[in-house]
Hints:
Number of helices: 4
Strand content: 25-35%
Helix content: 25-40%
Oligomer: single chain
Bound molecules: tetrahydrodeoxyuridine
Structural class: alpha+beta
Largest sheet: 5 strands, mixed
Amino acid sequence: MDPGDQQLIDAALQAQKNAYAPYSKFSVGAALRTANGEVFSGVNVENASYGLTICAERSAAVAAVSAGARQIEVVAIVSKGGASPCGACRQFLAEFGGGMRVLLVDSDQPNAVRETTLDVLLPDQFSFKPTE
Ligand code: THU
């Protein structure tokens, strides 16, 4: 863990309380730090049309990018059991920092943090450089 990671974990734990998960009852909170040190959080937002649900990680990334950020350094994800991000979120996050650190936190034991990286979670990431 780096200095500042605890602040991120606290932000994710706080965000988790705002998760909108009436269908799955599985609340997820995410908080990330951008390259210029700003922190953004997000939660899963479910919908009666289940497939429209957005995960916490993508909510947080959308908030950061909407505020102008383009590089994410580290993301903390909080859920019961400390779940790892889904495949869609891995690809979505990779767009903004393929090597970002990922902190997985079990909301029942928030002191036991599993640290990994997006490189490990999503090896051989898809990307391309558009030509003009
Ligand atoms: N969920 C996330 O927020 N992040 C993930 O990486 C996986 C799943 C949410 C989506 C849904 O609201 C609930 O968890 C159960 O799948």
